[in-house]
Write a sequence for this structure.
């Protein structure tokens, strides 16, 4: 990791990612915060690229910056009467303190420990084969059980989300207000 | 000037700390979920950094287990986001609020 391009890319991407993440905490408008979340995801994908993780970087852009951010926008748009305010609760002080403490501990430890890591020439000369092929062999080889469990988990998450937002008493498409009016009308006739 | 494992772990730790702070201190359900996604992403960065810099394997025999684990983390994060945001919409339908300070009972 000695080449100038990678070093510059690392520092620029890290700065973008950390500043955007901190801005999510500071911004008052929730929709702006979601836009910055997408910036964080894209910066993370860039950092993954500097680690030679091509497949994971593309998956990150597709899943996080594409799908999950759209889910967040949906969640905000489907709650129109709720506050768009990105305000803090009473736990803001302790939360900031705990987050800062965790970050400080990790940073200090990371620079203090003698890692068993490759550096310099050994890292540059390390032959890096096609990651997609290796990941595929891993998924269908030693980790095939976890792979199958993950697929079942995704299926149940899909079904669960559909079941959660479907009102069992309201399958004919009427809104909650119409439903309430029908109830009172029936009650009145009795 | 070089970049090594410690730098990536430092970035990962800072992002994780910001995620913890957001998840603990925000009042809106969606903002709390954003903090959780940040934490999951920071762990992904740490996994990939360890996988890239690991000196534990002979040249060319690195099994890329870190990459495989990240694939599973991505799966779980997607499932978690879908279910949790569906729950947020469901709570909003009943209470017309997604303010966590006002959602303080398990049954109503």
């Amino acid at each position: 990791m000695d080449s100038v391009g990678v070093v510059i890319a690392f520092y620029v991407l890290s700065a973008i990612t950390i500043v955007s993440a901190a801005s999510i905490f500071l911004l008052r408008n929730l929709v702006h915060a979601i836009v910055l979340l997408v910036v964080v995801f894209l910066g993370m994908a860039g950092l993954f690229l500097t680690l030679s993780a091509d497949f994971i970087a593309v998956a990150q852009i597709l899943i996080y910056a594409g799908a999950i951010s759209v889910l967040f926008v949906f969640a905000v748009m489907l709650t129109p009467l709720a506050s768009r305010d990105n305000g803090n609760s009473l736990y803001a002080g302790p939360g900031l303190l705990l987050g800062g403490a965790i970050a400080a501990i990790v940073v200090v430890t990371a620079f203090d420990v003698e890692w068993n890591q490759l550096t310099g020439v050994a890292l540059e000369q390390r032959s890096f084969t096609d990651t997609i092929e290796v990941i595929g062999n891993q998924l269908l080889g030693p980790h095939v059980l976890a792979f199958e469990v993950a697929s079942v988990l995704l299926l149940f998450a899909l079904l669960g989300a559909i079941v959660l937002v479907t009102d069992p008493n309201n399958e004919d498409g009427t809104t909650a207000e119409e439903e309430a009016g029908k109830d009172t009308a029936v009650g009145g006739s009795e | 000037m070089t970049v090594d494992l410690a730098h990536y772990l430092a970035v990962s730790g800072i992002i994780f700390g910001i995620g913890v702070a957001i998840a603990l201190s925000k009042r809106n359900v969606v903002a709390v979920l954003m903090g959780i996604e940040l934490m999951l992403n920071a762990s992904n960065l740490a996994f990939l950094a360890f996988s890239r810099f690991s000196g534990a394997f002979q040249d060319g025999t690195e099994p890329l287990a870190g990459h495989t684990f990240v694939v599973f983390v991505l799966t779980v994060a997607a499932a978690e986001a879908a279910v949790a945001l569906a729950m947020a919409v469901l709570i909003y339908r009943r209470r017309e609020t997604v303010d966590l300070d006002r959602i303080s009972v398990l049954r109503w």
